[in-house]
Queue: 4 jobs
Job 1
Amino acid sequence: MPHYDLLIIGAGSGNSIIDERHDDWNIAIVEPGDFGGTCLNRGCVPSKMFIHTADRAYMAQQNAPFGIETNFISANWREIRDRVFNRIDPITESGLNYRISLPNVTVYRSPGRFIDEKTILVGDEVITAEQIVVAAGARPSVPDIPGISEIPYLTSDEIMRVDELPAHLVIIGGGFIAVEMAHIFSALGSEVTIIHRRDRLLREMDPDISERITEIYGNRMNLLLETEVSKIVHDGTFEITLSSGDLVVCDELLVATGRRPNTDSLDTAAGNIATSSSGHIETNAYLQTSSEGVWAIGDITNPIQLKHLANADAKIVGHNLCNPDDLLPVDRSLSPSAVFGYPPIASVGLTEKQAEEQGVSFLVAVRAFADTAYGWAMEDQKSFIKVLIDPSTRLLLGVHLIGPQSPTLIQQLIQGMSLGQTVDEMARSQLYIHPALPEVIEQVLLEF
């Protein structure tokens, strides 16, 4: 029975734990899928490469207000797709080959599951380890819709690798995957219909942001809100029966109704690893699980499934594995996020609703991008920034943006929150370049 100093289950962010500190460790990695995990192979990296292309196509259709006549003619989907994955797939392969080449690392390419504490069955082989890091991620969650198990629907795992651009793509769901994929395929020429059971897209975000993106998408594509899917059949095309009784027909169907942690496939209970009601592995502040010597990082333990948070987890555990007498805690008090639809969205901290529910006192200010000179240049009438502050400490509580460059603009405010700067310090202790878009930050802070 092989025994290791360290066993890592999952080669996404878990793969980044191994560095020169572990050169003398005997290490195993269990990864039946693609090295690099979801982000590199079927998530944030390829999707943003597609989104950059989609942005260019969409802007070609939006130039009339500037006195420019441009047309979007068509998209060569296979060329677009191959540009993305001809870049990514070699990185995946080289990552696997590099780990295999290391003399102190053994890579198992079969699925693994716990059969006892710190004991894993991989294929037909039982392996054990002194310490285990569970970094097995999450997978798409598919609702129990009548007929869905009998049809060739797609999830985010497959949609970006299809061979043809759909004529009509239907997306079930209204979260960030739905919003991003809807932008990509709509901009590149597909008719897109979103079916969502809630009253607006991105329902968990700040209500003003959620309402604005719902309004924008409602003008771009078919948006069926407060609508359930009653039945789906497939006979060459998809026939989707709605709760209203209406029928929607399409040639491609994307199910984007959330993601679930992979704890069930690992049989974590057999390893004495406690999980929450949502199926996520429970950890303490140091990312230790209920089983001594077992750690968990990333999407399998954090419901906020963001790559930068998983990477931060990996850094914490990488340190803690080597420094048992000097453990570092994970800090998720500031967990920024972005949604790369069009326009993009960025958020950090509390929303108004969360502040009210938690009984937190706050002041709020909103500023339109159109209030800045650069906003005039962009002819922007939809974008805005919304900021919440503590009236006593003058510290930022939450920031929410929708508009061009939002995921970049918010970084300045994340830094201010991390350093404990007041809104007065952020607004007045530096010069803002004029005329540039960051002036919208200066203006909203001066509102206070």
Job 2
Amino acid sequence: MRILTGLLVLTLSMGAMAQLAPGHYQAGRHYEVLEKPVATSDPDKIEVVEIFSYLCGHCFTFAPLVSAWEERLADDVVLVHAHAVWAPAMEAYARGLHTAKALGIFEEVHMPIFTSVHQERKQMNDAEAWADFLASYGADRDDALKAYNSMGVSNQVRQNANRIREDYKSRGTPELVVDGKYRISARGAGTHSEMLRIADYLIEQIRAERK
């Protein structure tokens, strides 16, 4: 009886693995094909855009997986973080992201921002709060205030919000957009880890097409 039970579990496990094998990923089921391809920031690279929000709990749990995944990306792939703005309260965090990028400290503060919001329960809803936070990571406070309120950051926030909503047709976070053509969500993929495996699969497809 134990042998039969073990064989049954093995069979079911193999069946589940087969369903998730790369050859079984299907457009419209595991990922979506965008109706109109969106231009990427660098045509020489395969661009993967992570659509996220610092206020999103699922994004907080996804972030370490994305960070580890990014470390093993090949040189022909670039990861871009794009902060969604579904509501007015989210704009301050999108501004914070682009301010950190403008100051050249985004990589240092990306995960600490998540930790501050979700574990320390800090609220960074204005320029002063962001200037204080970024100054604690070595930024000049006055430079942070100027960047946060700058036209450049305002334009980047607006352009990204429009691209996420109008071009990518995204309605939730986290999601991934691969090379401006394919959108991956946890709803279709099933798990956060599977989202990254589907991204790997699509990257390989794009590489093959380019060759």
Job 3
Amino acid sequence: MKKRKILKIVGIILAVLIGVIIALACLGNVAQAAGLVDNTIDKNHAYSRYGLDNYQLDFYVDTGWDWLPWNWTDGIGKNVMYGLYVITNFIWRISLYLSNLTGYAVAEAFKLDFITKMAGTVGKNIQTLAGITSGGISSDGFYGGALLLLILIVGVYVIYHGLIKRETAKAMQAVLNFVLIFVISALFISSAPSLVKKVNSFSTDISSAALSLGTKITMPDSNVKGKDSVDLIRDNLFAIQVRQPWLLLQYGSTNVKKLGKDRVKDLEATSPNKNNGEDREKVVKKEIEEKKNNNLTISQVGNRFGTVVVLFFFNLGVSFFVLSFTGLMLLYQVLFIIYSMFLLFSCLIAMVPGQNT
């Protein structure tokens, strides 16, 4: 029986050591991958106020007397818990980089605003295809080439329905439809470059207003004045995917007012890489000893592991939907440009009697 117990303890020690080595190796890979994401520090925005390393999970346990023989069993237990913490922090770090990458991808997608950059070019191409400019109609475009044919078709239609079939109302409707569509489309095409810019600017203003309103609802304490839509999106994503989960894992609560802003800031603003981590360790020890924060001790390691796993899949789902919508946004911009180019053909077809419904 004693041999079995000894073998069991040795097996646990070996398993813990192997697990810790694997986890640390994985953490090393994550640290190397950290350079691939945006790590710019800008205190004007919540998502870039501090580095990602500041949002690591903290763990502290006093191992000063573990070398004594009667504390060896407790020491093994502490090492097991530390190994579980390393795995927990590893999963959390992946979630951090995933969230940061999502925000960075959204920002880059918004910078690739095809419509804003190509509005003038799209408008001029529409004018070239139609043959209509602010100076008048030329014979080089589709409008100039098809105008006589359309007038002939409308004339035949009016003669047939107005004179032969005595359907005067139908004939007059065809003439009125032809004149209205031609005048409206010609006015639009003649000022297409400026109109496309104005439509895109109007759409952008609506999007910014909607984002500001959504931010005020979801984050009533945030200041949205003076921020563009990209910063608002990244701040919201950061709050949902990083800061709120981090507060929950570190303090067991997301209520900053109740916890104390200065208390949260002390830990949040202290980098774990500065002064060999001693500054961060002092804040963590103060949290445990003075604030009785058990979330940073052995007792909550298992709970934090389960919470981190749930949060990882939650962040994965959020990132998937955000990146999907970002891709759709880029697709819609491309489709808008394509549909704008083919708008004049729709107008030409609509001028044909019976084809405007």
Job 4
Amino acid sequence: STITFLVTVMGLLQPDHPSQILAALADPTSPLRDVKAQSQVMNDILHARNQTLVAEIQTSLKTYRRVIVPWGAMHLQEVESWLRTQNFQQSGEVERKALSFW
């Protein structure tokens, strides 16, 4: 269901005609309107990936004292929560501009 959902989203980004976007969004059988599919997508692309990341951090910390985790913004809250439960302490913060519109 995740692949079907993502293929549907990609179709919205490259329609043959703009009316296809509205038709896809209005279609009651579209995966985009399926709450169960939406939940599955979030589990697959966010939570499951976070679990994999946490496992990689744990493995890396057996060998390395410092691990840098360049990860997407939606992942950071869950990863940060895990780090805090493991008694990690924040030692600094750097803010970077991600987007600039003018």
